[in-house]
Amino acid sequence: MFYHKKHLQYYTRPERPDPIYAKNVQELIGGVFGEMTVMMQYLFQGWNCRGPAKYRDMLLDVGTEEIGHIEILATMIAHLLDKAPVSAQEEGVQDAIVGAVMGGQNPRDVIMGTMNPQHAIMSGLGATPSDSVGYPWNGRFMVSSGNLLADFRSNLHAESQGRLQAVRLYEMSDDPGVKDTLSFLIARDTMHQNLWLAAIEDLEDSGLETTPVPGAFPQNLEKSEHSYQFWNHSEGEQSAEGRWAKGKSMDGKGEFEYVANPQPLGPEPEPGPPHPKLYGTGK
Question: pTM for the complete prediction?
Answer without folding.
Answer: 0.85
